[in-house]
Amino acid sequence: MYQPHATRRNRLLSTLGDGIALLATAPEATRNADCLYPYRADSYFLYLTGFAEPEAVLLLDGRSGKSILFCRAKNPEMEIWDGFRYGPEGAKEAFGFDEAYALDEMAQRIPDLLADCRQLWWPLGHDEAFDRRVNGWLDGVRRARAGTHAPAHYGDLRALLDEMRMVKDEAEIALLCRAGEISAAGHVAAMRTVRPGQYEYEAEAELLRAFVRRGARYPAYESIVAGGGNACVLHYSANNARLQDGELLLIDAGCELDGYAGDITRTFPVNGRFSAAQRDVYEVVLEAELAGIAAVRPGAPWNAPADAALRVLAQGMLDLGLLAGSVDGVIESGDYRRFYMHGIGHMIGLDVHDVGQRKQNGQWRNYQPGMCTTVEPGLYIRPAQDVPEAFHNIGIRIEDDVLVTADGNEVYTAAAPKRVDEIEALMRGE
Ligand code: GLY
Ligand code: MN
Ligand code: MN
């Protein structure tokens, strides 16, 4: 049976030599009084374990090749209140660890395991509270019987895991594609139901309903549901304005499925019909997005989609009369940033803005099969005297999630329509 988490642990173990890696999951977070935020395990921890209970710690021992979990003990009393816990035996069985122990055994077992290990890897500085615990365990080794040594070398575990996480494996690709499909279904539901006079949060409700009823309980990030000029606020999240006839609605939203993020933006007319000016700007952004997507292929440098999309946007800004001069001129001067002020996209995976270095030794890295990126150009036109009035308050972004394949790419969020005729047909109920 294919066990993706055990396979990832074994890959990491094979790079540790005689070192040890330690990783804690995320702490719980208080929202207010005795209410907690919905719990979300740490992404690195999910990547290596799939185990989503709070408080857990993973130890990988390169010398023995063992994966050892420390987790909450079974507790029938607490389980009456808070629900099922695996407990060490259950977790070992269900998640394929070599050994598993209750949390109260960490104080003894971890210093014993660290004794005479040469190198310790953990996400140094990621969580101060965990840094202090690691220091405590190291002190435990130093205080132990004479003749044992604490590790002399420390490394940041993130450096190893980020490289692994940049290239998605089969199980991750399946989850990302499903998260993409569910996210697309949310956008389709919003397009089908939006009407002038509704509030932005009514469209948000349609998105969330579509996510939850397909098993994705939470969005991957705060949904942006921005009518009219609100679309020019890049991280708009109030989502409480009334949608007016004649406005566009920009929705940037994606679900999280088993930890994996979807991230889609669509922009469409509240009344179902693009005006001539809206369509003119929209076609520029769509052409830029398609040019960006076409540049995502194995062997191409990371910045190729950014450059391809920017040239289309710059030409569009000149054609629309937003800027004067030449494509090279407005790119060189940076004048285009008045209407397009963000990057082309980001890797996507367990984190919506996923980990991984895009440059190595100062050079852009090349795309490899299994990498996933977003492509998300936009134009944001705030009212100003030197801008034709028909374009005032038009904010448009179009965003898809793209998997690099052996011979090109796959846009796995394509089920959310983005051509003008497709959007208008969907909104007419066809
Ligand atoms: N919604 C976050 C992003 O598009 O990057
Ligand atoms: Mn987005
Ligand atoms: Mn994005």
From TrEMBL:
Its cofactor is Mn(2+). Belongs to the peptidase M24B family. The lineage of its organism: Bacteria, Pseudomonadati, Pseudomonadota, Betaproteobacteria, Neisseriales. The keyword Metal-binding applies. PROSITE patterns: PROLINE_PEPTIDASE. Residues 2-131 form the Aminopeptidase P N-terminal domain. It catalyses: Release of any N-terminal amino acid, including proline, that is linked to proline, even from a dipeptide or tripeptide. It is an enzyme of class 3 (hydrolase). This is Xaa-Pro aminopeptidase. It comes from the Bacteria. It holds the Pfam family AMP_N. Keywords: Aminopeptidase, Hydrolase, Manganese, Metal-binding, Metalloprotease, Protease. Its EC number is 3.4.11.9. One of its GO terms (molecular function) is aminopeptidase activity.
